[in-house]
Design goal:
mainly alpha; Huntingtin interacting protein 1; phosphatidylinositol-3,5-bisphosphate binding; clathrin light chain binding; phosphatidylinositol-3,4-bisphosphate binding; single chain; ANTH_dom
């Protein structure tokens, strides 16, 4: 369905396409990681349990969170690029319709940022990381 909306270059077509891609990414993430609730609120202990105290699982979770975060920020950027900055659009019906999904984006991003920082600290504190793992982590740092 997102491809169909993506062909519409005017109006809400691109916004719907990006939003549907985000919904698909969310569903895929929660299917792969059923321990994460839909609202992404979990304690540090639950985060440890989600990674099963395995460095490889923590790394995979971190990569998946970065992908999820990228989709969230892509929607955010697309919405702001679609707004007419010459006037106050937050009071118009069309502006409110465009801005409404960003409330959930902000909430999700705050949790994702928090968890990725915690996971990165866990990854950096691992004493037995292999050379390959260190190289992958260094490459991820450079591209960020």
């Amino acid at each position: 369905m997102s491809r169909m909306w993506g062909h519409l270059s005017e109006g809400y077509g691109q916004l719907c396409s990006i939003y549907l891609k985000l919904l698909r990414t969310k569903m895929e993430y929660h299917t792969k990681n059923p321990r994460f609730p839909g609202n992404l609120q979990m304690s540090d202990r639950q985060l440890d349990e989600a990674g099963e105290s395995d460095v490889n699982n923590f790394f995979q979770l971190t990569v998946e969170m970065f992908d999820y975060l990228e989709c969230e920020l892509n929607l955010f950027q697309t919405v702001f690029n679609s707004l007419d900055m010459s006037r106050s659009v937050s009071v118009t019906t069309a502006g409110q319709c465009r801005l409404a999904p960003l409330i959930q984006v902000i909430l999700d991003c705050s949790h994702l940022y928090d968890y990725t920082v915690k996971l990165l600290f866990k990854l950096h504190s691992c004493e037995y990381t292999s050379q390959i793992f260190s190289e992958l982590l260094a490459r991820r740092r450079i591209s960020a």
